[in-house]
Amino acid sequence: MRKILLDLCIEQVQLSGKPGVNFLLFTWKIIIDKYKEKTGRQHSKKQLRNQLDAMKRLYNAWVILCGQTGIGQNDATHTITMEPERWEAYLQTHKYAKPFMTKSLPFPDEMTFLFDGISVTGAAKWAPTVGSVLEDLLGNTHSSYNLSDNIEIPSSNVTQPHNETQQKAGEEVDDMELMENIQ
After folding, report:
1. Cα gap 11→113, rounded to integer Å
2. What is the residue-averaged pLDDT of the chain?
3. Within a domain: residue 103?
4. pLDDT confidence of residue 139
5. Are the beta carbons of 149 and 56 closer than 8 angstroms?
6. Is the pLDDT of residue 159 over 50?
7. In a domain, 170, yes or no
8. How confident is the model over 114-155, as pLDDT tens digits?
9. Quick one: average pLDDT of 102-118?
10. Residue 124 included in any domain
11. 3-class SS letters over the chain
12. The pLDDT value given to residue 106
């Protein structure tokens, strides 16, 4: 039945030309009606949405898992192979990956079509502890440019309008006062 739902969603994405599964209400009505026609079961939008969300979590867990280094994949069963200790440690922080200890991702082509590119997997994340954005973007390609050089940026002649949220010289503004002035 999950395959039927995935196929119906793919059909609607192809008809609308919009990626993702955030459908309009009339699109959901079409999916619900066709789902009932194909399965004989009546489900609400919320029920079908919950099934899609669960499949998206599985897909995200699979993508993150497959991105790990030092893991193997069984070509016959299409499952991930890791030492039991590593699985245990991995599952401490990735609970949705547990089914993949013994099973592969169901309907990988359909899930990739629906969820790839709209799912947050952390593959393109950056945090201040990683380094600087400039260093990450430039890498070693601009070795003649020293990122630690102090660069003076000329001040603009554009004046900003003064408002209550701006701090006056020598005066401290706390967070609460700032928030009150914004509201």
Report:
1. 11
2. 75
3. yes
4. 52
5. no
6. no
7. no
8. 998 764 445 444 444 445 444 544 554 444 444 444 445 444
9. 90
10. no
11. CHHHHHHHHHHHHHHHCCCCCCCCHHHHHHHHHHHHHHHCCCCCHHHHHHHHHHHHHHHHHHHHHHCCCCCEEECCCCEEECCHHHHHHHHHHCHHHHHHHCCCCCCHHHHHHHHCCCCCCCCCCCCCCCCCHHHHHHCCCCCCCCCCCCCCCCCCCCCCCCCCCCCCCCCCCCHHHHHHHHC
12. 94
Supply φ then ψ for residue 22, to 5 degrees.
Answer: -95, 80
- Residue 65, domain extent: 2-115
Would you state the structure tokens that stand for residue 111, as one six-digit string?
Answer: 């899930």
Query: Is 90 exceeded by the pLDDT of residue 181?
Result: no
Residue 183 lies in a domain: no
- Residue 101: which of 79, 86, 73 has the closest Cα? 79
**What's at 21, amino acid-wise?**
V
Number of domains in the chain: 1
* CA distances (Å), origin 5, targets 26, 44, 98: 16, 13, 23
